[in-house]
Amino acid sequence: MELETRFHECFRTEKRFEDKCHFPYGFLKSGDFTIEQARILELKGHAYAELASGERMPKGETEREFVAFCQGKKEAQTIHERVWQRYQSKVLSGLHAVSFNKKRLSQQELLEGCI
């Protein structure tokens, strides 16, 4: 029970995380994440992003360890770190674009559509 309580206390945020640019149909339907990973990313993703960018100060040891991971000071060990690492690798590895338009768009045009 203590582990479950600690899990819910860390990375607390009120906002649901979504990335309509890279995952227009959601994390789960993308096929890039398991059900558990997609759920964690939706619930905790804003906190992950804020901690990674420095907008939010870490609260507790788990969040401090996450910041150390984001800064490259340690390998991904926790579920939070592994999920964020997977998300980052999918976003940075290339474009995830779905188009029903017959016209081929250049990579620059695709990127401009996400901004």
Summarize this structure as a short list of keywords or feature phrases.
115 residues; mainly alpha; disordered N terminus
Structure in words:
With 115 residues, the protein is mainly alpha-helical. 55% of the residues lie in helices and 0% in strands. It contains 6 helices and no strands. The protein has helices at 2-9, 27-30, 35-53, 61-70, 79-93, 107-113. It starts with a helix and ends with a helix. 17% of the residues are buried. Mean pLDDT is 82; it is low at 1-6.
In brief, what are we looking at here?
This protein is 55% helix and 0% strand. The protein has helices at residues 2-9, 27-30, 35-53, 61-70, 79-93, 107-113.
Distance between the termini: 42 Å
Helix/strand-derived category reads mainly alpha
Q: Percent helix among the residues?
A: 40-55%
Strand content: under 5%
Low-pLDDT parts are 1-6
